[in-house]
Amino acid sequence: MHAQAGMLASTFTCSHEGVESYLVRVEARLTKGLPGLVIVGLPDTAVREGRERVRSAIRATQCEFPLRRGLVNLSPASRRKVGASFDLAIAVALLAAAGQCEQSSLDGTALLGELGLDGRIRPVAGGLPAARAAGRAGIQRIIVPAQNAAEAAVCPDIQVFCGESLEDVVATINSGFDRPPVVFDGKATAGSVQQSYDVDLSEVRGQPAACRALEVAAAGGHHLLMSGPPGTGKTMLARRLPTILPPMSLQESIETTSIHSIAGMAGPGPLITTRPFRAPHHSTSAAGMVGGGNHPTPGEISLAHNGVLFLDELPEFSPRILNLLREPLQDRRLTLSRSAGKLTLPASFQLVAAMNPCPCGFHASRSKRCECSEAALGRYRSRLSGPLLDRVDMHVVVSSLTFGELSGKPRAPSSRAVRERIVRARQCRNERQHRETADLVAGPLATMLRQAVERLGLSARGIRSIVDVARTIADLDEADAVSSTHLAEALQYRRPPWSQA
Ligand SMILES: [Zn+2]
Questions:
Q1: Is the torsion defined by CA of 380, 386, 387, 390 positive or negative?
Q2: Is residue 336 part of a domain?
Q3: How far is the CA of 374 from the centre of ligand 1 (A)?
Q4: Is-cis flag, bond preceding 76, omega within 30?
Q5: What predicted TM-score, i.e. pTM, was given to this entire model?
Q6: How many angstroms is it from 382 CA to the middle of ligand 1?
Q7: Ligand 1 center to residue 368 CA distance, Å?
Q8: Segment 385-410, tens digit of pLDDT
Q9: Burial environment of residue 433 by CB neighbours within 10 A (0 to 12, 13 to 18, 19 or more)
Q10: pLDDT in tens, 345-377
Q11: Contact, 103 vs 29, CB < 8 A?
């Protein structure tokens, strides 16, 4: 090694903001002066505290901690650096500046990992998105903690190496990466493994109308609101929506895993292969719901990306949150305006919401009398704004079970059978690509549609939504054209839940 290597070295690492990872350049310079270490480039407390971990970890190796003044610069300096995942890159850059680590092997290399005082490397959040970001930026290889290797190796554009300790990583670098990279174990992931859920649609008793609505919603990816008294199984139904959705594609699986990885919620395998089901409580804060804050992390709407967001007791959510939901419900993402610029968060979820028909829960119930005043009823319903309800394509009433239904055997079909129908319907849908939309509005069903529009006072968005749902119903029927029966069913889902009972 060249001991007088100019005292300046550099390597790369990754950081993330919202759900997006980006490349960070790490430069280290050693100068004469009192021994010490300064980190610049908008580091937060955890990054600055890395100085102590880096010093101690280097001392734990065969290398010597440079007895000079060290300056580490993280760029771009405009973005705030958060967390402890910079440790490994900082330590290696310092060792390279001191001539103890081969700079030529560091060109085109990114490093990610938190250091323990004994030099061991600890796992970090965001291994997969970091590898993707580095690969996109043209970096050839990334060194990650051993526990993050499987998820990082999913990314095809970059070679992944891993290390247990700083010593180990320095040896890998100085050998010129003279060892095989980690290989992605595709067998253990999406595509080849049937997704498994621990619940099944066949456990649902009665509720044929609600099961049908769930199937239509799943086939078209339509947002659904269920209204009914407590104890009618709205939550049970919602939990079974992911089980009838088509299996995740590899791309969807990578997207969802990246988001969960940044949130520090990666699962046991390298990839998440079952669709997420997120059910935040109505007391969840706006930041918890959408992400955000000074250093945004993924919120519930992003954690539900490519899966289901279940909001029980919808009118109990704060008006602010219900307003924030309007954009993702329509555009499948959320854009936050911040002082540092715009931040786009992925939020392609399918909404299933549930509500009681009134504050006491028993309006129009067969089992109990509603004791709510007209005024209380009006206030309760007005919590759901028109623009929000307008974006929920389907409304369905879930009524109390009769004694016969309660004591009967499970009657709903299995999730697998329904999923097969849905996969077929979605294939039809993809082949058609919405070209019937105009036909239906102008075709023989136009009169029926126009009358409904006048009766229900529908917006343009409402009309599009009805046509879309009618098309989905025709797809489930494997019908080429939308019939009046299909349209009638779609129209029925459009009425507000309290006018259906
Ligand atoms: Zn009531």
A1: positive
A2: yes
A3: 9
A4: yes
A5: 0.86
A6: 15
A7: 9
A8: 888 988 999 999 998 776 666 666 65
A9: exposed
A10: 899 999 999 999 999 988 877 778 889 999 999
A11: no
